[in-house]
Amino acid sequence: MRPTKGSDVLFFHTFGTKWIVLHSFSSATELLERRGSLYADRPRFVMFEEMGWAPTLTWLRWGPRRFSVAIVLKIAYGLDVDGPQSPWIKLAEDSSEAVGKSGAPASSIMDRFPAARYLPSWLPFMERLRYARTWRPAIEAITRLPFDAAIKLMNAEKAEESFVQSRMKIWFENSRQGCPNRFSLEDIKGAAATILIAGNDTTAATVMLLVLYLMQNQEVQRKAQEEIERIVGKHRLPSWNDIPKLRYTNLVLQETYRINPLSPLGIPHASIADDVYNGMFIPKGTIVYPNVWAMMHDPKVYSDPFRFWPDRYLPKEEGGNGEPLPIGHFGFGRRICIGKYLAENSLLIILATMLATMNIDWPLGPDGQPTPFEPEWSFRGQAIVLPFGISITSRSEKAMAALNEEIDALQT
Ligand code: HEM
């Protein structure tokens, strides 16, 4: 590979592995979207295999298993979370913890030298192998336990329509008729676990970011609340029909994606064949990281990029700066997040409901006044804000009554 001066692509070799990091929207769109079929593979995630992740869709190589993507959005198991003590909550929390702190995908010594997984884990430089082994039971539990519970419901003929149920029906029927199955039981388990993990963890982490930025930016919160009052009124909760009309609220979400993309370096792709980009030769098997963080904070695209300012996307005549909505936080091309519409809709209805029902402020200090503080972050793999204190007051009795009614209806 030969770099061109001032290139938006950084490349390097480490012990026989070729890497490129894409720093601009244009290089990421050209390679991962327009030439997407060439970059649809994943590198091998040896450390994640050690953690017990192997059958999970996000880490799968490109190939016939891709069929799962079309269907994985269906709700995974048909199981209920019956209250805050539900064992499924603890299970999901453990796996989130494991993912959140496992480091950037494909970046451990084992990913470079797969044989390193057989070295003793007590060696000082094998910290990530120790981490993988410590968390392996949590990953295995989330792959196995809800799946077993869904099968139990099926056997008792109590199962509701779910992803696992529909796939298992096909699997059993093919087996009964002696027809080959295009997917294995491990594929079904992995795809179902993906819904749970990829969906739960990312959405929850983004809700925490929304709360943080609303707390830190009181004027943005007021402006979004005014929009909710104008479109929804004060006497009911926002509904799905309101969502497309909540333009500023949507910009608050877009600005949250931009200012802190959860996967700052994306999830790496790998190239399937040799390619040439801007005179640069990219050999087959190169690991490709989109540097989403750099794209989202490029001062040539976003003025004052570290300022949380949803108005930046509004046209100039409306007091904004006409800047482009962020892309890349859900990935690129053929491996783009399949849950993006589900995630976006869930986040918008949560955000609109929070804005309608509560004022979010800094936590109160000993003097009873809102007291600003610096939140703490974890940047191991995902960029997530750690739990922090807030103060919440209800906005209107009617909105709170409507919220309580909804909660009661969910619990019965
Ligand atoms: C705010 C929420 C979310 C964010 C920021 C997010 C982000 C991402 C990113 C960056 C990727 C990698 C894309 C690439 O390689 O180019 C990805 C992949 C994926 N996401 Fe999400 N995601 C979110 C929610 C969800 C939800 C709700 C689901 C499922 C219900 C989901 C399922 C998946 C799956 C299955 C993949 C792997 C796709 C593949 O490898 O082909 N995600 N996501």
Automatic annotation (TrEMBL):
Residues involved in heme binding: C337
Keyword Flavoprotein (UniProt): no
Keywords carried by this UniProt record: Heme, Iron, Metal-binding, Monooxygenase, Oxidoreductase
Cofactor(s) in the UniProt record: heme
Molecular functions per Gene Ontology: heme binding; iron ion binding; monooxygenase activity; oxidoreductase activity, acting on paired donors, with incorporation or reduction of molecular oxygen
SUPFAM superfamilies: Cytochrome P450
Pfam families tied to this protein: p450
CDD domains cross-referenced by the UniProt entry: CYP64-like
Keyword Iron: yes
Recorded coiled-coil stretches: none
Family to which this protein belongs: Belongs to the cytochrome P450 family.
Protein known as: Uncharacterized protein
Organism the protein comes from: Chaetomium thermophilum (strain DSM 1495 / CBS 144.50 / IMI 039719)
